[in-house]
Amino acid sequence: MGRERVSRFVRTHTPFQPPKFTIWHFVGLLILVGLLVFTQRAPGVMADVSSLVIGSEKSSWQLAIYVRITIIVLALYVLFGIRGQHWMVTIGIPCGILGFELRLGENRITHDPLTLGFFLVQLMCFFFLARLITRQPDPPKRRI
Predict the structure, then answer these.
(1) Which of 88, 111, 120, 141 is a Cys-bridge partner for 61, taking CB atoms 3.0 to 4.6 Å apart?
(2) What are the tens digits of pLDDT across the range 4-15?
(3) Taking Cα atoms as reference points, which of 33, 35, 32, 53 lies closest to residue 45?
(4) What is the pTM of this model?
């Protein structure tokens, strides 16, 4: 590897160096703001899209339970297995666990299916937890 490639690799993998705002970031921002405006102008259409059932009608509620249990297990691992997190993450994860457990109990009673809206929120939570597991925070440095 040449010196330029190595220095470019080091620059891109240095922490606290956010990526540059590109045209793709702008396009994504426009799409998300457009969806927000569309949700406010036509809430019925977005409610219909959000209520699409993932999987079959009969077994989708069981899939919803498995998805929530997976997220709870990952969150417990992050909470008790990874040290050096920011204090806001340490407060937010138990709140998320409690919320998922409450929703899990409600789902076992009502047999609500896994819908597209809930699935996307749970997917975001999964990626957040997977990111915390795969790239753990640096240990705190001693002050001298």
Answers:
(1) 111
(2) 666 666 665 565
(3) 35
(4) 0.73
